[in-house]
Amino acid sequence: VSDSVSGQTVVDPKGYLTDLNSMIPTHGGDINDIKKARLLLKSVRETNPHHPPAWIASARLEEVTGKLQVARNLIMKGTEMCPKSEDVWLEAARLQPGDTAKVVVAQAVRHLPQSVRIYIRAAELETDIRAKKRVLRKALENISKSVRLWKAAVELEEPEDARIMLSRALWLALARLETYENARRVLNKARENIPTDRHIWITAAKLEEANGNTQMVEKIIDRAITSLRANGVEINREQWIQDAEECDKAGSVATCQAIIRAVIGIGIEEEDCKHTWMEDAESCIAHGAVECARAIYAHSLQVFPSKKSVWLRAAYFEKNHGTRESLEALLQRAVAHCPKAEVLWLMGAKSKWLAGDVPAARSILALAFQANPNSEEIWLAAVKLESENNEYERARRLLAKARSSAPTARVFMKSVKLEWVLGNIEAALDLCAEALRHYEDFPKLWMMRGQIEEQIENTDRAREAYNQGLKKCPQSTPLWLLLSQLEEKAGQLTRARAILEKSRLKNQESPELWLESVRLEYRAGLKNISNTLMARALQKCPNSGILWSEAIFLEARPQRKTKSVDALKKCEHDPHVLLAVAKLFWSERKITKAREWFLRTVKIDPDLGDAWAFFYKFELQHGTEEQQEEVKKRCENAEPRHGELWCAESKHVLNWQKKIGELLLIVASKLRNTF
Prior knowledge:
By secondary structure, this protein is mostly helical. It has 39 helices and no strands.
């Protein structure tokens, strides 16, 4: 049944559908035949769960043997695994009783809105003629070119209604075939004959747009709404938005935007507008209708010009789906309306900086200072801009001003860091001492002081700094880790162990401290103790992804798969666990599966730099040049900032936000893949 090399089935499940009757005993034959068939089908389902015929064959086997409920359960599981399979949904509808079948078909329509067979089945399930008509009319809105649907719909109508339905289809078809002038006449005639059909109006708007008359589009859509209301047609907002999305996908941008502007406010209470419109925009983005979303944001900003959250949503939308120019134009308008929103100023400055226009970034930050005097975020952004463009003297002057006019712990921290990076150790230590007089409960200052002392090999002073810091900040996990690592480097393994034990007493549910304890024993060669500690750690922090991901690779190779299953049960959506599973498949040379899990990891947490680095190294070894470039490009767009290995290396790369591709290569080259 299963090929041990690739893990793929070599049995054709489609054969089961035709051979099933010969396999299954119909008159109390050998019960072993049923068991064999069941076992075989189970194997096929497990090997390839996304293969529809396997689920259909399994359900039919249970149906023939009289286990109808088991058959229903199996086929419903099949709909979860193969939601885009028409055959599975139709089989599920066939096996379910009346009302449940209707629910199943409704779910099927949501997954497959373009399936003619599912709509026909939905109509067949309805007993009331009016309900059948309603289903088929809804179907024709989604699939207007299906002859089978038109035929089924017309057969249910009275002769007069059937004539109107067919004439509408013919008018639209005729308009598509005619020249511009004739098409206009055809559509005008169609509007006179069928004044209640919105599709004729929308087609007219699309026709004008296609011929460059964009100023007419808005008028046509507005007249459509007025005319349809006058003829007693209810304006269904969701339906119109769906039409707008279809126009967007067909390239009729002006028509889709005109529809959005015309219907976006219909039937919504004033207090619900903002929330509903933001949801509508997200929905359009999810459906790939970018211009619809842009029109919704534009309308929202006209109605709520002073709402920072709306400007931010619109800015992130332009960042992800627009151009740099469209983003900068939007941010310019945003800061005019919300001058106190620091984040909008910073986004504008960053966009200019990334494009290499440093003077423009400076001028944006200067305007931001005027609107937000003494803002810590803007001071630090200005410092970052100067230091990352090697204007260290300017950065130093800015920090001196910030310390006098807007002194905060972060401002002092950046001051210390600048001097430290530039190699002015004495100045860095002096600033650190001054900062700690004012902000002794800020753990990063103690950490920096200890690390500077370590760098100049003054171990006793580093130890003193960490210990003093821990008296003031006993909950700071990084401080405990630094002190423990200092002792380990000094060869004081017992002292390092004691420090970690003490830290765990004060922070019992800190997975980072447990992880360091496990690693300390492992580095010392005490694998049994590290395994025991890991078991205790997982009891204390059962939902910690970093612990489970480490636990997988502490196991011997044969047990790793079992451990990974346990990890996924506890932390199904944790990026560290997903990354560990990807590495596990990689180590087993299951390339396709490894790639799937890497993709899943970076999708669930694009901010985890380690995941991108492992993924890139994987593609360097097993992927094509296109795949390598794709990973690199996606990583640059994601701008990851976290990850143990990523952060350790980013410290050594100047201007690393501009050199993400370079940093990715550095981290990937230092990874070992002997898991």
